Amino acid sequence: MKDRLPQTVRLIEQDIYSPLPEDMVGKYDIVHVQMFLLCVKDNDPIPLIQKFIQLLKPGGYLHWAEVDPDANQTVKTVRSSSSTEATEELMEFLSKPREYKGFGWISQLESVLIQEGLAAVTVDRTPNAESYQGFWNTNFLMLGEEYSSLMLHGKPSAEVNQNATRLREATRRAAVEMQNGVAIHAELILA
């Protein structure tokens, strides 16, 4: 892949919670962030925002696109005979408040960005485009798998363990439904 990229593009692997390499600090006019939903620890995006700000040149722009699992979501199918049961179960599970869930930060993103010193902050909500449907379905399936794995960290209670298993099974069944024309329509947050 590297041989197909322009010479001005460089790919690096970086743990966002580790110190940034000096040659990256203050070097970028625009930093685009997308799908960091599960990277935010303890429902607190501030450490990530501070890292993104470090990357920016003075006057630079931060653009963040994130799906909001708590926002208006619908399940649709292109075939009336297709079952949507597992996909609806997946979406219901992801939208229920739970003790181990930390997505509330998304609805507060605008105020947190302002609090961290960014100016001219605007947040828009937009439905996902039909042309991106396969991408969105894949993202929600990955969210279900990753979320169920996160639930099992440490020593989960029997209830949490049972919910993680239920979520993982619903995610796998939803993948089959999606192959048969089922799609999740969700809002995208653009900040």
Secondary-structure element string:
EHEEHHEHHE
Strand content: 15-25%
The major pleated sheet works out as: 5 strands, mixed
Enumerate how many helices there are, as a single number: 5
Ends apart, CA distance between termini: 30 Å
Strand pairing plus helix content: what structural class? alpha+beta
Shape: globular
Helix content: 25-40%
Q: Count the E strands.
A: 5
Based on CA atoms alone, the radius of gyration comes out at 19 Å
Unreliable runs = none
Chain-averaged pLDDT: 85
Description:
By secondary structure, this protein is of the alpha+beta class. It has helices at residues 46-55, 85-95, 109-115, 133-151, 158-179, and strands spanning 28-34, 56-67, 73-77, 124-127, 182-190. Strands 1, 2, 3, 4 and 5 form a 5-stranded mixed β-sheet that branches. The longest helix is centred in the last third of the chain and has 22 residues, at 158-179. It is globular, with a radius of gyration of 19 Å.
What topology does this entry show?
Layout: E1 28-34, H1 46-55, E2 56-67, E3 73-77, H2 85-95, H3 109-115, E4 124-127, H4 133-151, H5 158-179, E5 182-190
Helix pairs in contact: 2-5, 4-5
Comma- or semicolon-separated keywords:
alpha+beta, 191 residues, globular
Brief summary of the model shown:
This protein has five helices and five strands, in the order E-H-E-E-H-H-E-H-H-E.
